[in-house]
Automatic annotation (TrEMBL):
Enzyme Commission numbers on file: 2.2.1.2
Organism: Pediococcus acidilactici DSM 20284
NCBIfam families assigned to the protein according to its UniProt record, in alphabetical order: transald_staph
Protein name: Transaldolase
BP GO terms, sorted: carbohydrate metabolic process
Length: 239
């Protein structure tokens, strides 16, 4: 039986709604927050920096990852400095490639040399993990985010990506490995078993994770009770 209380992997809530972040922060296993442009759009955020400043101020002990928006190298560098200045627990998210498929290795190298903590994101191949790792400066601490859920959604078995990425990052102290695009609660326990350091979890799964620890038969009983409750509340009948 798996229980959230037994977790040692770091868990970051993945979203862009302050109210849900407040709820997630009540769970002892939540150690930080991540977001991305799609989540910001979904949440209706219109002032990115105002949102980021509020989040950092409200949760000063938590770790954060905020993403650059530009595809142009010099602008990415400028945006990264602005995000870095939000606080010492902030990691600046830089995609491993631009929208045209060009490598951001030079940007990563320059930012890391400046001792800006990075979260190298949108990684889907072992080769990209290697590129990210090669361009991180000694003595820095960074995150390498592999998008396991998106790889699996494409019908690709992600286990080779995970296992190889664990092996690469374990031998390089500059980076921790982060499992991104989590799809189900079991992924959290799977990530821990495979040696991943951190996993991002959306708010709905944070809620489910807090309720883990039930036996399989208990889940079955709860399921039919839920069905019965919905039957009674809906007024549906067969006869």
């Amino acid at each position: 039986m798996m229980d959230a209380n037994d977790l040692t992997i770091k868990i970051y809530e993945d979203g862009a709604e302050i109210e849900k972040m407040r709820a997630a922060s009540q769970q002892a296993f939540v150690k930080g927050f991540t977001t991305n442009p799609s989540l910001l759009k979904q949440a209706g955020v219109t002032d990115y920096l105002a949102f980021a400043r509020q989040a950092v101020a409200e949760f000063p002990e938590q770790e954060f990852s905020f993403e650059v928006f530009s595809n142009e190298p010099q602008e990415m560098l400028r945006e990264a400095q602005i995000l870095h200045d939000l606080g010492p627990r902030v990691y600046v998210k830089v995609p491993i490639i631009t929208t045209t498929g060009e490598s951001t290795a030079d940007v990563i190298k320059e930012l890391s040399a400046a001792h800006i903590n990075l979260n190298i994101t949108a990684i889907t191949t072992v080769e990209q993990v290697e590129v990210a790792e090669r361009n991180l400066a000694p003595g820095t601490h960074n995150l390498i985010s592999i998008f396991v859920g998106r790889v699996a959604d494409a019908g690709i078995d992600p286990h080779h990506l995970i296992e190889s990425s664990v092996e690469i990052t374990k031998s390089h102290p500059e980076a921790s490995l982060l499992w991104a695009s989590t799809r189900e609660v079991y992924n959290v326990f799977e990530a821990q078993q495979m040696g991943v350091d951190i996993i991002t979890v959306p708010p709905a799964l944070i809620t489910k994770l807090s309720k883990t620890g039930k036996a399989a038969l208990e889940i079955s009983v709860d399921t039919v009770k839920g069905f019965q409750r919905d039957i009674e509340e809906s007024g549906l009948s067969i006869l």
